[in-house]
Amino acid sequence: MNGAVNLLVVSLLLLLLEYSGSSELGRGEIGSFRSGLTGDLVANGPSDFFKLLGCSEEFRESVWQQRPLLLRGAMKCEGGDLFSLKTLYDACPTFAAGHVTESGSDNGGVGGSTWKFRPLNPNQLKGEPLQKSHVEDAVKARPPSTISFNTAGSLFQNVGELCLSAIRGLRYPVNVNLYITPQVTEEEADTCGKIVPLHTDRQDVVVFQTKGKKRWRVYPKPAVKRGVDPCSRGKAGDVLERGEVSGAGCLDCVLEEGDVLYVPMGWAHETATPYLEGGGGKAAESTPPVSVHLTLGIDTVVWGLTYAHLRWGVLSYSGLDYKLDMSGVEDEAYWETMHALPFGFLSRDDEEIADDLLELIKKLEPKRKKRKMPSKAKAVKVVGIFREHCDELLKVQEAM
């Protein structure tokens, strides 16, 4: 095996554990959402939801990595909340490491000041656990701040169960982040709206609104900007200006408890927390209502499960030059390279994937000579390596 491909596979398969099986499909109904940005899907919990989504031909063919989708009331969980502020309180004291946005900081993306966080637990570096009082102080703080927990599936059991349901239903590696934001007074609405600036992500995400309300604006992918990661716009000092996104095809909605929103990788989005009626200072005098949502990222880019990674792997395995001058690549072709390899719920066979890759290489490099093209046999071989890589990742995540 070529050393470069071997290194890719070995480096991403260090944590091999036992596969733990799959869950039964419960009750649920799925409706048509071929046209428009909203649809119908009613599930009786995470396992139902991802089984229904993964089995939907319409989601695979007309939604996945093509457009956002809002599903009203799709996750009305029976027997308790998916996650609430009480869930976090009940977990305290805990060594789970959360963060909070800096109160009063400019998080609007001006002058490179985009994402500013500090530890939610002020005594974290002293090795002391997070206390309920730390959470209460952050929720009551003014100007309002957002509490966040990355990799929440490894911190909270019910979030871990959500991850497991997604893995079993979609058959891709996933991760969940948790966000808690106070709903604010009308006077504070502008400040709150700046907490999360306009940005893009490198994951396809499924957002579960578990408590309160959150406003989302989702815009089609902005034009690829040279020298900036298109999947990380509005981050790390980059500013994604509103003029760079189109209002055409924009989804503007307020998520309420039980609603689910799918946002494709690379689509720009921003959030704000709707204000409380009545204004005044009442929200600061006691614990205000909060918005709680879970963002589940489907990590195909992070784990090297895209056509861009496959192109590199096949060309390296074949001993061919894999360098690519991106200056001549059209946006459409770039986003094709970022498409997820159709494993899991997308379920295409290795030969089809290899054929697609060879056509994509020709599209990206029309001047590449025929003798510099990899053979289909080698392409199929490397697709199999990537599929094995995906399967082993799932074993690791299912056993966590």
From TrEMBL:
Any Pfam family matching the protein: JmjC_2
Q: How is the cofactor bound?
A: Binds 1 Fe(2+) ion per subunit.
Which PROSITE patterns is this protein grouped with? JMJC
Question: InterPro entries recorded for this chain?
Answer: JmjC_dom (IPR003347), NO66-like (IPR039994)
Transcription in keyword set: yes
Q: Residue span of the signal peptide, if any? A: 1-22
Q: Report domain JmjC positions.
A: 132-324
Q: What class of enzyme is it?
A: oxidoreductase
Cofactor dependence: Fe(2+)
Q: Subcellular localization, per the record?
A: Nucleus
- Does the record carry Transcription as a key word? yes
A single GO cellular-component term from the record reads: nucleolus
Write out the entry's keywords from A to Z: Dioxygenase, Iron, Metal-binding, Nucleus, Oxidoreductase, Signal, Transcription, Transcription regulation
The GO terms this record gives for MF are: histone H3K36 demethylase activity; histone H3K4 demethylase activity; iron ion binding
Principal place of residence = nucleus
Superkingdom of this protein's organism: Eukaryota
- The record's EC number reads 1.14.11.-
UniProt family annotation: Belongs to the ROX family.
Q: What does this protein do?
A: Oxygenase that can act as both a histone lysine demethylase and a ribosomal histidine hydroxylase.
UniProt-recorded name of the protein: Bifunctional lysine-specific demethylase and histidyl-hydroxylase
